């Protein structure tokens, strides 16, 4: 006979209490690995306030940083870069380096 008898009740599994943070609200610095509030980085012109790392920015973001709003006009958007080394010339260069 046991003096103390405790009925075993199954323990409830702890429910996961994860705080859901909207994706994209925080950003990790590639240099100092700090987690930084994205708006803080945006207000600092895409520069890490902790270490000064420059985050990559798109062309549109760079243009908005440089010029006044609504004043940018793109000219000659149909132009594309060309490869000045023609394929035949590249072949000659390869032959030159082989021999
Ligand atoms: Zn940093």
Structure in words:
There is one protein chain. Helices cover 26% and strands 6% of the residues. By secondary structure, the protein is mainly alpha-helical. The chain has a domain at 23-67. A two-stranded antiparallel ribbon has the order 1-2. It is elongated, with a radius of gyration of 30 Å. It binds zinc ion. Zinc ion (ZN) binds at residues 29, 31-32, 34, 48, 50-51, 53.
- State the helicity in percent bands: 25-40%
What fraction strand? 5-15%
Give the strand order of the largest sheet, numbering strands 1, 2, ... along the chain. Answer: 1-2
Rg, please? 30 Å
User: Unreliable segments (pLDDT under 50, ≥5 consecutive)?
Assistant: none
Structural class label: mainly alpha
Can you give me a brief rundown of this structure?
By secondary structure, the chain is mainly α. Helix content is 26%, strand content 6%. The chain has a domain of 45 residues.
